[in-house]
Amino acid sequence: MSQAIGNTALAYARVWHHVDASDRILGKLAQRIAYVLMGKHKPVYDKGIDCGDYVVVTNARNIQVSGRKEEQLVYRKHSMYPGGLKEEKFTDLLETKPHEIIVHAVSGMLPKNKLRNRRLARLKVFGGSNMGIYRNNILKRWEDGTLSDDYILKLDPANRFQKPERS
């Protein structure tokens, strides 16, 4: 009389998600990324267990903000030395380091606990469309929630149907 008790390793398996940040609102995108990094989309979610997935964000340079935040938003950091306050406007940071904008927004939406840095390490942000070696790991896209074509062909090579054209 054998029964499987508890959650299996498959329930905690980490999946790689791809997000195209072109013309997406920063706050809504960061909230959804934080949700996936924490693992709240999984039925086995527990706040004390790190069961989130990996997220790869591309085209961070094309992110949008609502209202007048593009002119008014300022990022500040301090070196803890006298006179060490550094300020950088959103538009300047978008040109030089677009990945820091998304990481900062997602970091603010994650819980402030010991798991925060580990969750942020699973976030990979790229300014352009080239994601390098991470392209091979992607399983899910956020546009329609489907699995990637390469992954479907790996599972079943005979399943070579054409996707219907969207109008």
TrEMBL record:
<comment type="similarity">
    <text>Belongs to the universal ribosomal protein uL13 family.</text>
</comment>
<dbReference type="InterPro" id="IPR036899">
    <property type="entry name" value="Ribosomal_uL13_sf"/>
</dbReference>
<dbReference type="InterPro" id="IPR005822">
    <property type="entry name" value="Ribosomal_uL13"/>
</dbReference>
<dbReference type="GO" id="GO:0003735">
    <property type="term" value="F:structural constituent of ribosome"/>
</dbReference>
<dbReference type="Pfam" id="PF00572">
    <property type="entry name" value="Ribosomal_L13"/>
</dbReference>
<dbReference type="GO" id="GO:0005762">
    <property type="term" value="C:mitochondrial large ribosomal subunit"/>
</dbReference>
<keyword id="KW-0687">Ribonucleoprotein</keyword>
<dbReference type="InterPro" id="IPR023563">
    <property type="entry name" value="Ribosomal_uL13_CS"/>
</dbReference>
<dbReference type="InterPro" id="IPR005823">
    <property type="entry name" value="Ribosomal_uL13_bac-type"/>
</dbReference>
<dbReference type="GO" id="GO:0006412">
    <property type="term" value="P:translation"/>
</dbReference>
<protein>
    <recommendedName>
        <fullName>Ribosomal protein L13</fullName>
    </recommendedName>
</protein>
<keyword id="KW-0689">Ribosomal protein</keyword>
<dbReference type="GO" id="GO:0003729">
    <property type="term" value="F:mRNA binding"/>
</dbReference>
<dbReference type="GO" id="GO:0017148">
    <property type="term" value="P:negative regulation of translation"/>
</dbReference>
